[in-house]
Design brief:
This is Hemolymph juvenile hormone binding protein. By secondary structure, the chain is an alpha+beta fold. It is built from five helices and seven strands, in the order αααβββββββαα. It is elongated.
Length: 270
Amino acid sequence: MELLRLLQFNTFILLHLLIFIQSSMCFEYFKEKPSYIETCKINQPGFTKCSTRSIQAFLVEIFNGKVPEVNAVVGQLEPMKLDKINFKQDDNEAATIRATLSDLMVTGLSKIQVKESRVSKKNSGWLTKLFFPNFKIEGQYKMDGRILLLPLNGEGHMFIEIDSMNITMRTKTHVIEKDGFLFNNVTDVQVEVDAKKMSSQFDNLFGGHNKEIERSTNESFNKNWRDFFEALRPLITETVANIMFQLIPKIFLMYPATFFIEDLPMPQKP
C-alpha cells in the first residue's frame, strides 16, 4: 500500500512537470496585459515620466524572476549565465586586445534602476537610461595583447566588478503586426557605459609564470582603475550590449507594444 501511494505521488509530480514544460514551450506572448505593466500615451504630456515609471516596474518584475513565462523563454536572469564572448580591439592607444570570455556569470541585474525612458514617435526607437548600483561579471578569460603599455598573455579565472554603472541604451525597432497585436521587433541595441568605480582580478597573467608581477599588475589595475576602465571600455561596452541584445528582442516579442503605449501608431503598409 505504501509503495502504491509513493508511485501515485511520483506520477502526480511527473504529470504536473510535463504540463508545465509543455505550457512553457507553447507560450508565445501575453494576450492580456499583466497587472505589473502601466500603459502610457505617447501623444499626451508627461509621457516620458509615465514610461520611465512603467519600464522601471516592468524590469524589476522581470529581473527578479517573478514572471515564469519570461524565465522559460530567456532563462534565469539573476544571476545570468553567458556562454562566450569573443572580442578584438586593434589600433587603440590604450589597449590592443584579443580576448575570449567564457562560462560567464553576471550579477546585479535585479537592482536595475530606470532613470529615463523615451520613445520616438517617428520610428518607435527607444532611448533608455539605466543605473546599476553594482554589476559583476565573472568567469574564464583568455587574452593576448597589451593594456596600458603592459604586454599581457594569460588565461584563467577573472572578474570585473563595477559600482554605480550608468548605461545609455539606444534600441532600434520597427513595429510588426501579428494576430491583430502590435509588437516592437528589435533590430539593433547600442549602449554607452560609464562608472564611478571598478575593481578586477585576472589570474594567471603573463602565463602564470611570475606571481609577484601578476599580483602587482592587478594591484596597479585597481589603483588606477579609471585608466584601466577606459582601456577596457570597448570590451565592457560590447559585453553589456551583448547581454541586452540577448534579452530585449525576446522580451519585446512576448508583450504587445500597446501594453506599454496605448496610442502606438500602426505600422505603415508598403
